[in-house]
Amino acid sequence: MYWSSEAKLTSIVKIEQERVISKGGNASLLYLPKEYFTPGEKVSSQLEVDSEGNLKMTLTKKLFNFTCESLRALVGADFSVEFDKTIAGTQIFSAAKGSVSVSCVKSTQDLEPAHATVSRRFSQIRTPLEYQSLMDTLKKLTEKKLDAYIEPEGDLDTINVFKNPQRYGLKDQAEAVEALHETSKKLDFSITVRLNSKTNTVEEIKEVLKELKA
Question: What pLDDT, in 10s, does the model give residues 57-68?
């Protein structure tokens, strides 16, 4: 199923008020909202004087590193779009390529970051070596300070054996994977990475897709 939306994010005026310029030594100081500005960071500034003698100063700072549109552009034609629509002021986008899926959710009305997930499903992990390979991939992602986790997928009995191997006389989860395969129990895994546009970047999303071999 494919849905398309042409909804655009609109500018949001958060603060419009009169401010007092203070004196600090021999300089004039204008205090900025601390939730948006940090001492020492660089911002772009522009001074403009109009024909009526009004002086206007514009400060520009990028609050967010990516949008759902930039995620859509990143995956491009390689991924099949499954959902792309704005519902009740919330933009939702999802796409898939084989066992890899990406999604993005962003409010079009509030000044909030976009939240994205990248996930891959690994089917029928059969040996301790295959399971260890998954754990190595997860370790690489978490070492990059990414919010990544792994989840087993199967019927309830299979999940119980995997999560509590000692109860069933097994040494660890790697041994449980092998034992389940020998009894023809199907056990899949999903590695999922959660990102948001305030703390993560498009480059990090690229790295995740590369690590999951999308």
Answer: 888 878 899 999
Q: Do 79 and 178 belong together in one domain?
A: yes
Region of residue 34 (left: phi > 0; alpha: psi -120 to 50; beta: else): alpha
Alpha-carbon gap, residue 67 to 114, rounded angstroms: 6
List 189's β-bridge partners, or say none. 122, 152
Backbone dihedral angles phi then psi of residue 71, each to the nearest 5 degrees: -70, -40
Are residues 37 and 119 located together in one domain of the fold? no
Name the domain count of the chain: 2
Regarding whether 122 and 38 lie in a shared domain, the answer is no
Beta-carbon neighbour count of residue 179 at 10 Å?
17
Answer yes or no: is 12 within a domain.
no
Whole-angstrom Cα distance, residue 133 to residue 135?
Answer: 5
Q: Is residue 143 part of a domain?
A: yes
Name the nearest CA neighbour of 69 among 88, 91, 90, 89.
91
- Can you tell me the distance from the alpha carbon of 185 to that of 19, in angstroms, rounded to the nearest whole number? 67
Q: Where are the beta strands (DSSP E) in 160-204?
A: 188-196
* Residue numbers of the domain that contains 30: 22-60
Structure tokens belonging to residue 9: 């994010």
pTM reported for the whole predicted model: 0.78
Please tell me the distance from the alpha carbon of residue 67 to that of residue 86, in angstroms, as a whole number. 14
Q: What is the pLDDT of residues 105-114, one digit of tens each?
A: 999 888 889 9
CA 113 to chain centre: 10
